[in-house]
Design a protein that fits this description.
4-stranded antiparallel β-sheet, two-stranded antiparallel sheet
Length: 866
């Protein structure tokens, strides 16, 4: 028995020793390396990949106002959080290949080596390192024979090509997979869905739908199926197929998806009711049922918004506006939805040319719409433009009223002003009543469920009318008592303080003395209720009257420009200029007004009027800048030798960079005279301004910058000139700013060369060694495969410089910078330290360190790297 055990032990030991060999094609060796690859190294790598994918999926936030993404594969921000897991995948794949490859006689005996390459390719893909991923997948396709592995590699290569926007080769790969009749069943759904994604990103919605609906039918993942069906509904809706889209969303609803998907599917089902093929009352019934559902309490604003969309389809404009206002009133937490409701109302009023109402809605929209919304920039522009327009209209109305008052006697002026004050008070009281009605609406009509409120919550429905703020009769009595004692006070902090306009109380009014706190003998007076506020503005002398007329003229001209450039209402633009000229026939800047009319009528294709004002300018003001613009309109730039101009500019700029400012100034002036009408004219003139700044001639600098704006409007050079002038300010304080701009301009834009990360900390405020250790730990965790070197040096006596070198180019440097900051790797060390950080090319670092130019390079970094 002992001999048998001993013999068994010896045989096992020999088998194990033989199994470790990667050069012997024997059963034990193959089994050993395959088992270790699959169940040890690759298993850990695949688990790390699964963890990373699940985390990316969990962190994904769906925007139901846009198309849902077919796959949830993360963004630059979320990918940084899973980098350690993806690096682990690369490490495990590489380890499997290095330690367990059995390449014997040109054949791979370890059948899991292809899985290792595939794992590494997927890790590169999810890191969005698409070139490395594509190289890996192509290697698998070329080197391995397993049909299933090759097909999977082809799929991932096609997905990678899509990510790189190589749409033609991506489509060729997908079509090859699409026609593969022996494709493994578990790849079918992904092939169709990934192909659909390719068509979707190109805007081919019909093709994307046809592919995605097949993917939904082929997948075994129920969560994925219902998501893809929802996207199919979105694609149908985008094509204007309302009936089909509504039916698709109904199909999603019947699948019983999670609440958020279910709620949005219900909204979209109603939104896409076909008013010709379906009964629209059914849409309203479904939406009203959703309003009564307790789960939807905080989402009622979205429901009312969709009801407005249904009303819009039916041409019920009053109902549409009413639903939008309800959407705003019941909004509890969704600022984006409130912003969208305000936006729609703003656009409706804008289209109706009710610009003052539109401005108010745009102003409200601006407060609530997220800054990353696609329409935010447009909203900001209209808020600003319409704000100016309304302010101008108010200026015109006010000055007209004040001029009318100036023509009256003192007694008549006071009588007219008292009438104005009475109207202001009446409007304020009506606004207060409207506010009360709005509060009552919110308190009592926002979510009644059989008259009992939501879950018995006080103030919702009729749950508890004994509570003061939810009982209308008690509240009404309280408001009356408050107004009797305090008047119509504005709702604001410190509302009882008397730090504004104050008047003495009428001594005959004994009622005020009986009002507790009102017994002080003083009462605050709203300036809008004080006649002196209005009397002080009346232009009672010629100088004040001239100022009043100037304000009207400026407002009319500015409105014409706003109508033309921003609002695109050419009729209103022409009317504003014509009103200006009609009211002021001797307007001193008639040439400008005529030129504006000439441009407006050109856009309106009104040849008669455009010719009329063109001729007026040419005959009355033949030497004006407007005549020059008309005469040179449409002319090509002079035929000059661009290559010669380019060489002259390069030589002048080289002198400027070398700080030979006088020589550069002379060359720039000569170049401007010779090539003024070429595309280098603006550059020579701007370079002249730079040289004046270098010579500290600030007045000449300002003059040249203004000349750039005048001679070369709407060019990059004029934008740069405007930026510098804005920085200089009213008192020419920009000598230091100009120096920073000049310094920033000396840095080279060579973004393909090696970079480094730089951290500047005040000397003695933090341990540079601790910072180096933290950075080294961070590098090991997030960038283990990059050969990064950390070191520190002093810069002058004030700064300690800690650097991480070895970053290949700008892209990798930016990735390093983002990851370091998103992971807050240095937060604890630098929590109370005034530090600076940036990435910089090695070439620029030499200039930066030599000049200790922190401010100048920071400006260059902000412009080129952020």
């Amino acid at each position: 028995m002992k001999l048998l055990r001993y013999s068994t032990f010896i045989i096992a030991a020999l088998l194990i020793l033989g199994a470790c060999s990667r050069t012997k094609d024997i059963f034990t060796a193959r089994t050993y390396h395959r088992m270790v690859s699959k169940y040890n190294i690759l298993f850990n790598g695949e688990q790390a990949l699964l963890k990373a994918r699940n985390q990316l999926k969990k962190q994904h936030v769906d925007d139901y106002d846009d198309f849902l993404s077919i796959y949830r594969e993360g963004t630059e921000e979320t990918i940084s959080g899973v980098k350690p897991d993806l690096e682990k995948c690369l490490e495990k794949g590489s380890k499997t290949i290095q330690n367990h490859t059995m390449l014997i006689d040109g054949k791979q005996k370890n059948t899991y080596i292809d899985d290792a390459y595939l794992l590494m390719g997927k890790a590169h893909y999810f890191k969005q390192d698409y070139p490395a991923a594509l190289e890996t997948f192509n290697y698998v396709i070329q080197k391995f024979r397993d049909a299933e592995i090759r097909a999977e590699a082809e799929l991932w290569a096609a997905k990678t090509e899509t990510g790189m926007e190589n749409f033609i080769p991506a489509k060729a790969r997908f079509e090859k997979l699409y026609s593969n009749t022996s494709l493994a069943r578990h790849l079918n759904a992904d092939v169709f869905a990934s192909f659909a994604h390719l068509e979707f990103v190109q805007g081919h919605y019909e093709e994307a739908y046809q592919l995605l609906i097949q993917a939904a039918e082929k997948t075994d993942d129920k969560e994925q199926e219902v998501r893809w069906l929802y996207i199919c509904g979105q694609l149908l809706a985008e094509q204007g197929l309302d009936y089909e889209a509504s039916q698709m969303f109904d199909r999603v609803i019947r699948k019983g998806p999670p609440y958020e998907l279910l709620f949005n599917a219900q909204l979209n089902q109603a939104r896409n009711y076909d008013t010709e093929l379906m009964d629209p009352s059914k849409a309203y019934e479904d939406l009203e049922k959703m309003l009564r559902d307790e789960k939807n309490y905080d989402n009622r604003d979205q429901i009312y918004y969709v009801m407005a969309e249904v009303a819009q389809k039916l041409g019920e404009e009053l109902d549409r506006d009413d639903y939008l206002n309800k959407s705003i009133r019941v909004s509890t937490q969704n600022d984006k939805q409130k912003g969208l409701s305000y936006l729609w109302l703003a656009e409706i009023r804008f289209d109706d040319k009710e610009y003052e109402k539109s401005q108010a809605y745009y102003d409200s929209c601006y407060q609530f719409l997220p800054k990353n919304h696609p329409k935010y920039a447009q909203v900001a522009m209209f808020k600003k433009s319409l704000g100016r327009l309304v302010a101008n209209l108010q200026t015109i109305a006010l000055q007209d009223s004040l001029q009318s008052l100036a023509a009256l006697s003192d007694a008549d002026q006071l009588e007219a002003i008292n009438e104005i004050i009475d109207r202001v008070k009446e409007a304020d009281e009506e606004a207060l009543r409207a506010k009360e009605r709005e509060m009552d609406q919110l308190a009592f009509n926002s979510g009644t469920n059989n008259g009992g409120g939501i879950g018995g919550l006080a103030g919702v429905g009729n749950a508890n009318q004994s509570f003061y703020f939810y009982n209308p009769s008690i509240r009404s009595s309280g408001v009356s008592s408050f107004v009797a004692k305090w008047g119509n006070r504005k709702l604001e902090d410190n509302w009882r303080r008397k730090d504004k306009s104050v008047i003495l109380e009428d001594p005959t009014n004994t009622e005020a003395g009986a009002n507790g706190d009102g017994a002080t003998g003083e009462k605050e007076l709203d300036p809008r209720y004080d006649p002196q506020t209005y009397l002080a503005q009346i232009p009672n002398d010629s100088a004040a009257m001239d100022t009043s007329h100037s304000l009207i003229q400026l407002a009319l001209l500015d409105n014409a420009i706003l109508y033309k450039e921003d609002i695109k209402d050419l009729i209103a633009a022409s009317e504003s200029v014509l009103e200006l000229l009609q009211r002021y026939p001797n307007y001193q800047d008639r040439a400008r007004a005529w030129y504006l009319l000439y441009r407006i009528y050109l856009l309106m294709e009104d040849e008669a009027n455009s010719t009329k004002y063109k001729n007026l300018i040419l005959s009355t003001y033949p030497k004006s800048e407007y005549a020059y613009l008309i005469l040179n309109e449409g002319k090509d730039v002079k035929d000059v030798d661009e290559s010669e101009a380019k060489r002259a500019y390069a030589a002048a700029y080289q002198d400027y960079e070398s700080k030979r400012y006088r020589q550069a100034l002379s060359a720039a002036k000569t170049g401007f005279e010779a090539y003024e009408d070429s595309r280098y004219g603006a550059r020579f003139l701007l370079l002249t301004a730079y040289c004046e700044a270098g010579l500290r001639k600030m007045e000449e600098l300002r003059t040249n910058l203004e000349e750039v704006l005048k001679r070369f409007p709407r060019t990059p050079e004029s934008a740069e000139a405007q930026k510098i002038l804005s920085a200089m300010g009213q008192d020419a304080k920009a000598e230091g700013d100009d120096k920073s701009a000049k310094n920033a301009a000396t840095y080279r834009s060579d973004f393909s060369s090696q970079h480094r990360y730089v951290l500047l900390v005040p000397n003695g405020k933090v341990s540079a060694n601790q910072v180096q250790i933290s950075l080294s730990d961070f590098n090991s965790k997030y960038f283990p495969n990059n050969r990064l070197l950390v070191k520190s040096i002093l810069m002058g006596t004030e700064w300690q410089v800690v650097m991480v070198s070895g970053l290949a180019n700008q892209k990798q440097a930016q990735e390093y910078y983002r990851t370091l900051n998103s992971e807050k790797a240095l937060e604890k060390l630098l929590i109370s330290v005034d530090f600076k950080q940036f990435v910089i090319s090695n070439a620029n670092f030499t200039d930066f360190y030599k000049n200790q130019d922190i401010k100048g390079y920071q400006a260059f970094f902000d412009e080129n790297y952020k």
